[in-house]
From TrEMBL:
Residues 121-254 form the Mannosyl-glycoprotein endo-beta-N-acetylglucosamidase-like domain. This is Glucosaminidase domain-containing protein. InterPro entries: Bax-like (IPR053195), MGlyc_endo_b_GlcNAc-like_dom (IPR002901). Keywords: Membrane, Transmembrane, Transmembrane helix. It comes from Glaciecola petra. The chain crosses the membrane at residues 6-25.
Length: 260
C-alpha cells in the first residue's frame, strides 16, 4: 500500500512538472505581429463634434484604451516567450527552427546588438519588451493629437505624431523645415498605429532612460506607473521639460476620467 502511495505522489509531481513546462516554455508557433482590437478599422470618431469637454475626453479615452490594453497584453506575452527561450538556452537546449526564426525577428524588431553574448541579448530584449502605462499613453496621445482632432489622427490613426521617412509614407506636414524629408506617418488601422507607437518607445535610443527607469522598477517589484516613467519622455518633444510638465498636468486633471 505504501508503495502505491509513493507511485501516486511521484506521478502527480511529474504531471505538475509537465503542465508547468507546457505553460511556461514557449510553444512552437509563430509570433503574431500585433493583436487587432474590435474597433481597429472603424473610422476615428468626430471628437470635435462633442461640445461637452468631459464627454469628449471620455469618448477619446474609451476609444483608445482597448488598443492600449491589447498591446500591453501582447507585450507581456512576448516577455514570456523571451523568458522561455532564455530558459531553454541556459539549460543547454536548442531552439527549433521556428523558435529561432521568432527570436531573430525579435532581435531585428527591437534592434538588438547581435555582437553581444546570448545573456546580454536577452537582458536587452527584456529591457525593451515591456508595458507602457495606460494613462501615460492616453494623455500623450491626447496631447499629440489635440484630443483626436488633428488631421493625422482623423485620416491616418496617428495619435502620436510619429514620423516616417519614405516618400509617400504619410502626410507632408504644412510646417516642415527647408530640406527636411520626413512625413507624418499614416496607418491603416488603430492597432498597427498603437503597435508602432509602443515599439518606438521601446526601441528608440531617445527613450533609453524611460526603459532604464522601468527596468529598475520591475526588478525592485515596484509599480510601473505613468508618473514614474514620464521623465523618460523628455526627448519626445523639442519642448523638453515643458512637455513633461504639460503631460503631468494632464494626468492630474484627467485622473478621474481615465479608464481603470
Amino acid at each position: 500500500m505504501h508503495k502505491f502511495k509513493i507511485i501516486g505522489i511521484t506521478f502527480f509531481i511529474v504531471l505538475i512538472v509537465l503542465v508547468l513546462t507546457y505553460v511556461l516554455l514557449p510553444q512552437d508557433k509563430s509570433i503574431k505581429h500585433y493583436p487587432l482590437v474590435e474597433n481597429a478599422f472603424e473610422a476615428v470618431p468626430d471628437f470635435s463634434s462633442i461640445s461637452n469637454v468631459v464627454e469628449k475626453k471620455q469618448a477619446f479615452f474609451e476609444y483608445l484604451a482597448p488598443a492600449v490594453e491589447a498591446q500591453n497584453s501582447y507585450i507581456l506575452e512576448l516577455r514570456q516567450v523571451v523568458q522561455g527561450y532564455k530558459s531553454l538556452i541556459v539549460a543547454g537546449e536548442s531552439l527549433s527552427s521556428l523558435q529561432q526564426d521568432n527570436l531573430n525577428w525579435l532581435y531585428e524588431e527591437y534592434r538588438i546588438n547581435l555582437e553581444q553574448s546570448h545573456e546580454q541579448r536577452f537582458a536587452e530584449l527584456l529591457r525593451k519588451i515591456d508595458i507602457i502605462p495606460l494613462e501615460l499613453v492616453l494623455v500623450q496621445s491626447a496631447n499629440e493629437s489635440a484630443w483626436g482632432t488633428s488631421r493625422f489622427a482623423r485620416d491616418g490613426y496617428n495619435f502620436f505624431g510619429l514620423w516616417c521617412f519614405k516618400k509617400g509614407c504619410g502626410f507632408v506636414p504644412k510646417r516642415r523645415n527647408e530640406g527636411a524629408t520626413h512625413e507624418v506617418a499614416k496607418f491603416d488601422d488603430l492597432s498597427s498605429a498603437m503597435y508602432s507607437y509602443m515599439r518606438n518607445i521601446n526601441r528608440h535610443d531617445a527613450y533609453k532612460e524611460l526603459r532604464l527607469i522601468r527596468h529598475k522598477r520591475r526588478n525592485n517589484q515596484q509599480n510601473i506607473s505613468a508618473i514614474a516613467l514620464i521623465d523618460g519622455l523628455s526627448k519626445y518633444s523639442e519642448r523638453g521639460q515643458e512637455y513633461i510638465e504639460e503631460l503631468l498636468q494632464m494626468i492630474k486633471v484627467n485622473k478621474d476620467l481615465i479608464p481603470s
